[in-house]
UniProtKB/TrEMBL annotation:
Protein name: Gluconokinase
Pfam families for the chain: AAA_33
InterPro entries, per database record: P-loop_NTPase, Therm_gnt_kin
GO biological process: carbohydrate metabolic process
PANTHER family xref list: GLUCONOKINASE-RELATED
Gene Ontology cellular-component annotations: cytoplasm
E.C. no: 2.7.1.12
Organism domain of life: Eukaryota
Source species: Tuber borchii (White truffle)
Amino acid sequence: MLSYTYSEKSGVHVSTPSAIHTMGKVQSIPKHETRLRHIWIITGPAGCGKSSVADFLAKRLNLPYIEGDEFHPRSNVEKMANGIPLTDDDRWDWLETLRNKAVEALESGAEGCVVTCSCLKRRYRDVIRIAGREADDVIVRFVYLRASEELLLKRVKARKNHYMKDDMVHSQFTALEEPDESEMDVISVDVSGNLASVQNLATERVRGCMEEESQ
Ligand SMILES: Nc1ncnc2c1ncn2[C@@H]1O[C@H](COP(=O)(O)OP(=O)(O)O)[C@@H](O)[C@H]1O
Ligand SMILES: O=C(O)[C@H](O)[C@@H](O)[C@H](O)[C@H](O)COP(=O)(O)O
């Protein structure tokens, strides 16, 4: 079973497995022998730094990195490239694909993985959360990269070679449902600093969270 406690240090509610499922039976194991496998979902609107942070974090943690943008069907990419925001219906299959990719990474032996996915709405995050039901040692955590619309507009304008142009930023903020404190599995990171400081801050917060869980 998973139990939840609030941590002042990492700012998230942490879950600690007290048991694992083996062949349909629940077997209790000492906490210190548990190795948690994390699915770290790096979220936030276009331009918040998902790819830049995820790439850095995956290297630091030595985990595979799944770039969400690579799994959009061509129809979605064409819409976005033409400045047309995606609808819920455009997104469901994509979200499921990303969840499956993350689970497959763990099934093929990875100790965890890092995934980029804007996950703008709570119900999108809920689709991904289902991966945490795979096994008691699998934990889904969201890293929400928080920034103002104005700042992201500036960053997307300056970004080259991407189908998502600055005309899409406003619609991303219209769709955005910022995670609140009832979403206990979210680490919120302010991304107004320079890239290196944000990459380090996000990694620090993730490591802090892992440390809390191991206690
Ligand atoms: N903290 C930051 N400070 C300055 N520029 C940043 C920062 N984070 C990302 N960028 C730049 O902003 C653009 C968008 O970042 P990116 O990682 O592609 O965001 P996303 O994947 O969320 O759309 C890129 O050109 C990136 O180099
Ligand atoms: O790099 C970016 O600009 C974003 O990652 C971008 O590509 C987008 O956010 C989604 O992949 C589209 O899906 P949503 O409309 O659900 O954000």
